[in-house]
Amino acid sequence: MLQRVIKIRHAFRKIFRKLKRDRTPVFIIDCGGWKADSVQKLRKLFDPECKYLMHTFEPNSAYAPFYKDLKNHILHTQAVWIYDGEINLFLEKQIPNQQYSDEQADSLLFQKINVDAQKSIKVPCVDFSKWILSNFMKSDYIILKMDIEGAEYAVLKKMINEGSIKYITEFSSVPLLVE
């Protein structure tokens, strides 16, 4: 029974998305893009024809070359945060002879065990809630993926408090992106 309910709900959401997208500007926002892997997966899932404008926020400019050939895409080399300005980006620990894992990534939070608290770079940051309110309308269809290494809590709290969360039509979580 539960399987059937899930299938019906999924089918309804798919129909609703199609109807709404046909009438409304659609934007895909990827917060925490890393090496553009999630851009490709989001496109495959939501926009295989690259019709919709996609914004990616990736504060580590070392990853910018991964984005150079993407179509209908804007890369923001800024950290998603709760104010405009600069912030320390703590770089991932370099562990000899270890392959990359999902646990490794740069973070704004030095307390994370996968970062080197002594190794950081200053990066520009953007008040994401204010950016949403300034660049979009509530009637836009916005798909948001946010994987910003623990900073989600502060950012989402501010979005809730300021009402910009209501601009987001659909959230895409990391498990949806795993193939």
Shape: globular
What's the CATH architecture? 3-Layer(aba) Sandwich
- Separation, N- and C-terminal Cα atoms: 26 Å
Task: Point out poorly predicted stretches.
Answer: 100-104, 107-113, 174-179
Spatial strand order of the main sheet: 3-2-1-7-8
- The secondary-structure element order is HEHEEEEEHEHEH
Q: Could you characterize what this model shows?
A:
It is a single chain. By secondary structure, the chain is α/β, with parallel strands linked by helices. 31% of the residues lie in helices and 27% in strands. It has a single domain, classed as Rossmann fold (3-Layer(aba) Sandwich). Mean pLDDT is 79; it is low at 100-104, 107-113 and 174-179. The strands form two sheets. Strands 3-2-1-7-8 form a five-stranded parallel sheet. It has a three-stranded mixed sheet with strand order 4-6-5. Helix 2 links the parallel strand 1 and strand 2 (53-57). The chain is built from five helices and eight strands. 27% of the residues are buried.
Short description:
With 179 residues, the protein is α/β, with parallel strands linked by helices. It has helices at residues 2-23, 37-46, 128-135, 152-162, 174-177, and strands spanning 26-31, 53-57, 73-76, 79-81, 85-92, 115-127, 141-146, 170-172. It is globular, with a radius of gyration of 17 Å.
